[in-house]
Design goal:
- The complex is a heterodimer.
- Chain A is an alpha/beta fold.
- Chain A folds into three domains: 303 residues, FAD/NAD(P)-binding domain (3-Layer(bba) Sandwich); 135 residues, Succinate dehydrogenase/fumarate reductase flavoprotein, catalytic domain (Flavocytochrome C3, Chain A, domain 1, Alpha-Beta Complex); 139 residues, Fumarate reductase/succinate dehydrogenase flavoprotein-like, C-terminal domain (Methane Monooxygenase Hydroxylase, Chain G, domain 1).
- In chain A, 37% of the residues lie in helices and 16% in strands.
- Chain A is built from 17 helices and 24 strands.
- Chain A has a five-stranded parallel beta sheet with strand order 6-2-1-10-18. A five-stranded antiparallel beta sheet of chain A has the order 12-16-15-13-14. A four-stranded antiparallel beta sheet of chain A has the order 17-11-23-24.
- The mean pLDDT of chain A is 95.
- By secondary structure, chain B is of the alpha+beta class.
- Chain B has two domains: 111 residues, Ubiquitin-like (UB roll) (Roll); 122 residues, Alpha-helical ferredoxin (Fumarate Reductase Iron-sulfur Protein, Chain B, domain 2, Orthogonal Bundle).
- Helix content of chain B is 34%, strand content 15%.
- Chain B has eight helices and seven strands.
- In chain B, a hairpin with a 2-residue loop joins β3 and β4.
- In chain B, α5 runs antiparallel to α6.
- Chain B is elongated.
- The chains are: A alpha/beta, B alpha+beta.
- At the A-B interface, α3, α5, α6, α11 and α12 of A face α1, α2 and α3 of B.
């Protein structure tokens, strides 16, 4: 297989416009003869489904939730970037492009990222037109805030609920198309397989989560917008239901999976406090503007924070990175917190936390100012931990937050299976090895509102329009396989809960395929994963039947896929013997223990092809940088 | 954070499916950490049920951060439990005492069919939004975002109304199972913003009609919805909905 990114020729700034012009179109009268399947109804899926329906296509949209308004895009707090330059602070499309490429540690495709920066402005226009209540200045103009990795204020926000408001905007557009009969919404359906006929994606198999029935659905193209796979770690900031199943089934049908080891670990989350813990909660990174990070200087010091005198505290970020201090990027902050805890300096009951202390800021600016800035975050923290950050330092620890890796797509967002398009967090395209804050919402909406509506016509116009049918051998076989999978799961009557396996897998990956990795640990994980998987298929316990609403069964299917997918992640991590973006590969660091990128050998996208029982096959898409100068990041 | 361990008696609504009859089942839980969230406590119950050969309790949940609107149950008569402005997933066990009995039931309303145990069907809410909870604007033709100044006050009030997470606690709390608070959130948000004005008349009429059609009851100013709302949405939005509706109904075609 040869990976062709289909990057249009011409100058960077003109590629997208040129590409749209040279792409084939479908006349309005013919669009209604095409049916598009959209899986997922988060920012990317809902915006794509609504936009495609507006254009005149027939759309069938699927969500595993009870309503398209629930997708985890809803939980994004901070904001959405755009290169509007409303603040007159020197922002531009090129600067947003440059910041995103650099933030991704030069592991993303230039042409895609430039297009993203261009479309960012249209997104804000569209969302305002929909009635998204963005924050405003007194004069009625839109307000902006600044975010990590940028020196300009370009982030648009709706309080701490930007993701919610943008999703509800897309959801309202979708609702309008449902009412007009142009979108058929199929809720509480989980995709279990992709159907590929004559090399093209032509449909999906889903399970109706209420009745347990399997259904086959045919379409002229399939759009996957099913989010990321952070939950493979068990504990993450993702929603409980977020999963890799749809993307992984597409991978098993021939779609290459790109950079699966690129996972973002966010430094400021509320620490784990018990074995029963089900998820982790993010605290906005803006807290590091005023909070000072420290641990006790002596390992094993268990005194409460106020009893530890100033001289016996170790402000490790300020000491190690004097110019950036507590405001180093996410990856650096995360890695250093882990390092301190590994040395036995971690605090709290589990020893897996560091302090984020606001006492100096409170002394300097007064408690009123600090409350105004962070009051809602402090309240949220107190609700969960019963501890007031105004009185006692916050405890934080890194947690899995976002996956930059995903299904490989070309410039048109089409995977290596013709007719299968992949949007949002489910693809790998724009964030390289590290995503900047406020860029996920931007990418999901760019893909859904603008990119796929433009690129899908070119694909559809190229292939003959077949009448839709689910009677073919491929559909029958796919549905039968899905039935077999459900049957095998339901037959599991062992002694260990599915959650218990998931926890073990998550711990293994966190220890060996997390922020810092090395050959030995990765090999250990690679050996252990098949053992856990084997035990799962022997000893897991699934209650109930396949023919009913069965949440244990749903979970079992997702964990079964994680147990295979985890191996792919570890393969990818093993093959990338460089530190870059979110990850420190311990064999690749400078004399000062800083991450060392290896552009000579690893300036590529690693795209993995499924090979059945055999090891996956690695294809490399080389990354060329013509419009930016590749530099190394330093925060000393 | 000083976690204690508490023992609880749970009376949980069990109902196999929409058609089956339901009943409360009693379970005892020991050594529950007070640092657990309410849903983590239910996870522990489910693990216990699973390992002893019983069916786990079905309950909807997803983000566990209080924003997706999936979770919700009536705890001792109160939707989302005893803490104000708190979804069930954000409610922590430190608000209960050892020896407490917790009665846990689904959100009940004619328009919310029970799917299983604590899971209810809230698609009636989607049907109401589909009747007009949007601005009819296609992708492509939007003017520059700053071309339309909106006063900060209106933007903030619109945001207050838009904070609704669609959980249905307002309906569960209302003695009439009315959905007025839910409907008013969207109508109010779009009435406060100029983008919503061209369609405000049809929106008010159509959304209220859809609300009635879905089997929700009428508002009799009990204010239970406001007290139960995890996002503190004010009944002032219901007043605005009533004004919008009245104006629309009186203005004719």
């Amino acid at each position: 297989m040869k990976l062709d990114a289909n990057i249009p020729p011409g100058p960077l700034a003109e590629k997208w416009q040129q590409h749209c012009f040279s792409s084939r179109l479908i006349t309005p009268a013919n669009k209604r003869k095409y049916t598009i399947i959209v899986v997922g109804s988060g920012l990317a899926g809902a915006s794509a489904a609504a936009s495609l329906a507006e254009l005149g296509y027939k759309v069938n949209c699927f969500t595993m939730h009870d309503s398209p308004r629930r997708a985890h895009s809803i939980a994004a707090q901070g904001g959405i970037n755009a290169a509007k330059n409303y603040q007159n602070d020197g922002d531009s499309v090129y600067r947003l492009f440059y910041d995103t490429i650099k933030g991704g540690d030069f592991r993303a495709r230039e042409a895609n990222v430039y297009r993203l920066a261009q479309l960012s402005n249209n997104i804000i226009d569209q969302c305002v037109a929909q009635g998204v209540p963005f924050a405003r200045e007194y004069g009625g103009q839109l307000a902006n805030r600044s975010f990590g990795g940028a020196q300009v204020s370009r982030t648009f926000y709706a309080r701490g609920q930007t993701g919610q408001q943008l999703l509800l905007g897309a959801y309202s557009s979708l609702a309008r198309q449902i009412k007009r009969g142009r979108v058929t919404m199929l809720a509480r359906r989980e995709m279990l397989d992709l159907v590929v006929e004559e090399g093209r994606a032509t449909g999906i198999v889903v399970r109706n989560l209420i009745t347990g029935e399997l259904e086959s659905h045919a379409g002229h193209a399939v759009v996957l917008a099913t989010g990321g796979y952070g939950n493979v770690f068990y504990l993450s900031t993702n929603a409980m239901g977020s999963n890799v199943t749809a993307a992984f089934r597409a991978y098993k049908r021939g779609a290459c999976f790109a950079n699966p080891c690129f996972v973002q670990i966010h430094p400021t989350c509320i620490p784990v406090h018990g074995d029963y813990q089900s998820k982790l909660t993010l605290m906005s990174e803006s807290l590091r503007n005023d909070g000072r990070v420290w641990v006790p200087a002596t390992p094993g010091d268990k005194r409460p924070p106020h009893q530890i005198p100033e001289a016996e505290r170790h402000y490790y970020l300020e000491e190690k990175y004097p110019s950036f201090g507590n405001l180093v990027p996410r990856d650096v902050a995360s890695r250093n917190a882990k390092e301190q805890c590994d040395r036995g300096k971690g605090v709290g009951a589990t020893g897996l936390a560091v302090y984020l202390d606001f006492s100096e800021a409170i002394r300097r600016d007064g408690s009123e100012t600090i409350t105004r800035k962070y009051g809602n975050l402090f309240q949220m923290y107190e609700k969960i931990t019963a501890s007031d950050p105004m009185a006692t330092p916050m405890m934080i620890y890194p947690a899995v937050h976002y996956t930059m890796g995903g299904l490989w797509v070309d410039y048109n967002l089409m995977s290596t299976i013709p007719g299968l398009f992949v949007l949002g967090e489910a693809n790998f395209s724009d964030h390289g090895a590290n995503r900047l804050g406020a860029s996920a919402l931007m990418q999901g909406l760019a893909d859904g509102y603008f990119v796929v509506p433009a690129t899908i016509a070119h694909y559809l116009a190229q292939c003959p329009r077949q009448p839709l049918s689910t009677a073919s051998d491929a559909f029958v076989a796919a549905q039968r396989e899905a039935e077999g999978f459900i049957r095998r799961l339901v037959a599991l009557k062992g002694r260990r809960s599915v959650d218990d396996f998931h926890k073990e897998l998550g711990r293994l990956l966190w220890d060996h395929c997390g922020m810092a990795r090395n050959q030995q640990g990765l090999e250990k994980a690679l050996a252990r994963i098949p053992e856990i998987r084997a035990e799962f298929w022997e000893n897991a316990l699934v209650s109930g039947s396949g023919a009913e609403f069965n949440q244990t069964l749903e979970k079992a299917g997702r964990v079964a896929d994680y147990l295979e997918f985890a191996e792919l992640m570890v393969h990818d991590a093993l093959a990338r013997r460089e530190s870059c973006g979110c990850h420190l590969r311990e064999e690749s660091q400078t004399a000062e223990h800083e991450a060392l990128r290896d552009d000579a050998r690893y300036s590529h996208v690693a795209a993995w092809q499924y090979q059945g029982e055999a090891e996956p096959l690695l294809h490399k898409e080389p990354l060329a940088f013509a419009d930016v100068e590749v530099s190394s990041r330093s925060y000393k | 954070m000083s976690a204690e361990k508490i023992n609880l008696t749970l009376k949980v609504w069990r109902q196999k499916n929409s058609e089956a009859a339901g009943a409360l089942a009693t379970y005892t839980l020991r050594d529950i950490s007070t640092d657990m969230s309410f849903l983590e406590m239910l996870d522990v119950l489910n693990e216990q049920l699973l390992l002893t050969g019983e069916e786990p309790v079905a309950f909807d949940h997803d983000c566990r951060e209080g924003i997706c609107g999936m979770c919700g149950a009536v705890v001792n008569g109160r939707p989302h439990g005893p803490e104000r402005e708190t979804t069930l997933c954000q409610l922590h066990m430190r608000h209960f005492k050892s020896g407490d009995t917790l009665v846990i039931e689904p959100f009940r309303a004619r328009a919310f069919r029970v799917v299983r145990d604590l899971v209810v069907d809230r698609t009636a809410f989607d049907a109401i939004i589909q009747a007009g909870g949007y601005v009819s604007v296609n992708v492509g033709g939007a003017p520059d975002a700053n071309a339309l100044p909106i006063s900060q006050k209106n933007a903030e009030q619109a945001m207050d109304a838009a904070a609704c997470i669609g959980c249905g606690a307002c309906v569960a709390a209302c003695p009439n199972a009315a959905a007025m608070l839910f409907v008013s959130g969207k109508v109010s948000q779009l009435a406060l913003l100029p983008q919503g004005h061209p369609e405000r008349r049809e929106r008010a009429l159509n959304m209220v009609k859809a609300m009635d059609g879905q089997g929700f009851g009428n508002c009799t100013n009990e204010r239970e919805c406001e007290a139960a709302c995890p996002k503190a949405i004010s009944i002032r939005h219901i007043a605005r909905l009533n004004r919008e509706y009245l104006k629309a109904a009186l203005s004719g075609d």
